[in-house]
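cron nightly-structures :: item 1 of 1
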Amino acid sequence: MKKKKLQILMCLVLCFSLLSGCKNDVGTEEDNAIPVSSDEMNEEKYTFGFSCITMDNPFYITLEAAIREVIEGAEGVLITKDPSQDSDLQLQQIQEMINEGIDAIFLSPVDWEAIQPALEALNEADVRIINVDTHIKDTDYADTYIGSDNKNAGFLCGEDLLEKAPEGGKVVILESLNTNSIIDRITGFEEAIAEAENGFTIIVRRDVEGDLKLALEAAAEIFAEEEDIAAVMCGNDQIALGALVAANDAGLEDILIYGVDGSPDLKKELVKAETLIAGTAAQSPISMGKAAANIGLAMMRGEDYEKETYTEVFFIDKDNVELYGSDGWQ
């Protein structure tokens, strides 16, 4: 009987030894591993760069924030650098981002031609290019483009001028010759006013590089030299705000100033009882940014995406500004 009990005890010891040998790391991560799905194991996290014309412009601040929200929501990384309207600095910063290991870049060039060396470097490093808002000149380098219908934005401003000043008159244009989006806006505006029965004459045009301060200085000089100006067409809202300050300083009363963007600062002017701002062809940096980010993610995941995407533009003036509000972007 004692012998039988001893045999049973030895069997129990042997079984325990075998079980403990199978689980000699009890309590470790390996021992208590949580099952991971194949999708989670295969999902990569991507690093994107963001380089625009200048982060001093509220449009690009909002655009970047919309892109960041989507990218970081997908657990990606967004590296932002501000060239502050310096095309040479933009080239340098893009090379820095390449060195930091970006997979793709959201790019709005300071100068659509001078950006070419950066495009070549990005191509060499196998970095995908998501061209946003304003075109690069050599569009073959871009994997996709997302922006507004800029030519139509300018056309909408021109149509409004035809209604508000059917008698025609003198027009000043404040533009940016290195920025394709602004070039398209001015082209659309000129096509619209070409249909005027009584005619408009463009008496002065200045390249103010899309900058408020440069626009203010140029407009002040023009207003001091020219009389009876009917309208000022501005390539963006920042230019329009600069022209507005100059017009107010000059004591002008019968002049129509147009912008493009639909920025909160310009919409606040439209809310005022007396303003020289006639209107703005509005775009949505929020919609544009989210569209760009989602296309960028689809591209990196090998999913289908559109080669070109255009977001809606529409005209905002005193009559409808309350529909869109003046505290933020539409």
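cron nightly-structures :: done
The chain is about 45% helix and 20% strand.
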